[in-house]
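Slack export, channel: ligand-projects

TW: morning all. Re-posting the request from yesterday since it got buried. We need the structure predicted with the small molecule present, not the apo form. The ligand is pyridoxal-5'-phosphate; the SMILES is in the block with the sequence. No rush, but it would help planning for next week.
GE: picking it up
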Amino acid sequence: MDLEQIISLDKQYFMNTFGERVPVCFTHGKGCTLYDTQGRAYTDFFAGIATCALGYQYPSYTAALHSQIDKLLHTSNVFYVENQGLLAQALVENSFADRVFLANSGTEANEGAVKLARRYWKDHDPRRYKVISLMHSFHGRTLAMVAATAQPKYQAPYTPLPDGFVNVELGSLEALENAIDETTAAVIMEVVQGEGGVTVGDPTYVRGIESICRKHGILLIVDEVQTGMGRTGKLFGYQHYGITPDIMTLAKALGNGIPMGAILARDAVCAFQPGDHGSTFGGNTLACTAGLAVMHALLDEGVLAGVEEKGAYLKEKLLQLQSRHACILEVRGLGLLLGIELDAQHPAKEVMSAALAQGFVVGTAARNTLRLAPPLIISLEAIDALAAALDKILA
Ligand SMILES: Cc1ncc(COP(=O)(O)O)c(C=O)c1O
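GE: finished. pasting the full token output, ligand included:
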């Protein structure tokens, strides 16, 4: 099919929740390059919204999936799944957590994390059920996660929202502490707010949130759906801050494109009893093969080891651009999750289209921010090329 036909099928048959999509359809990718229906090549600085950490056709990942597809995809959680235990072990051995539950998306992992927090308090203090989240956060699209996602534009179409969520001002420890009472179960936060504008949590603030949780004996849920799996230069974003969550959620790059999510928790918090939670697809054989292959590439094949240096290189290039272009208000981010906030005369969406026309896929986020989240295997040469293209575009 040509692009026109693809677009017209979408317009006729697909629910229009994504608005005006970018008029490009990719057919395949290799390394950090994507190819579209017209045979055009693009260097990818978006990775399917921070998901394809290993880029495309990463050899060991692709080989593992091929070999699994030839054997078995899914058996259900009625039976034991070998790769599930192996993936859970790998995640536990490389984090604060003791146990893992596997789900299908970031939203579902967060929903499960909130259920886990409520389930914990059912046994310890049944008055506690409310979860506090921070303004500009993004935690997903189910009704409960829309209530946790503290952004009016996501909430307004669905009011009244489910009870049990309190949204507080971002950056104010006082506002957080004032919101805590005898009904509070947990705080959920992103250490870097991705959708919210690539806003990096200030260390004093993030550690302050942990201290407040400890002081009041409530649980700390860290949503690492976007920041996890090496994106920020460490395997998990919380590791930059020296904090220890009670519960952490993952998705996006965990499967590198195979849909999956995870809830990780300390033993003391693992209150789920048999029958309390479940999933048909969560942690199926194919998804766990993907997750294990991602962990192997990050930790054993050196992908994670390169992220901090590449992130610093990219950030330096962006700061150089900022010194030449007054329209860049701020460059922020951690590792290979970087945002370029532009002034109102330079809409991020327009700069994104211009970059696409130059052969670069970049994203956007709130606060008129251009969002860069390339595959973690991006090369320094590709970073140079993007910086040169942005230089021209912004001029
Ligand atoms: C921090 C965070 N949490 C949750 C989600 C929702 O994940 P999903 O789209 O996989 O449901 C996202 C998606 O962008 C996210 O960035």
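GE: first-pass observations. Residues 77 and 280 are 7 Å apart (CA to CA). The mean pLDDT is 98.
TW: perfect, thank you
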